[in-house]
Amino acid sequence: MSRPRLKDEDRRVVPVNIRLTTSESERVNEYAAASDLTPANWIRKKIFTGKFPQIKVSPLDAEIYRELHKIGVNLNQATHKINSGQIPRDYVMILAELSMQIKKIINALVNDGGPSKG
What we know:
single chain; mainly alpha; 3 domains; elongated; Plasmid mobilization relaxosome protein MobC
């Protein structure tokens, strides 16, 4: 399905070029990303309404979300391979070592940091 055609009066055909310093450009890009808009649409809204467009998500939260999403995708891929029996032999040894380390850590925490018995 294609995008609906715009009326001639709604088409944006007049380009307006402005020059920004590097820091100004970075600020516009940050504001636009926080508002979930393109820089051009952010500038257009700011000019015609006189107000800053509403911030949808803080840039830090959006960055953290993207990073967590990437981690989740990798975790899902690894889990899928493990569940389908495609786990490499090296991983089995690493998982066994990690499991032993986890048991030692839990034992140390349960015993209030005292010496472990095994």
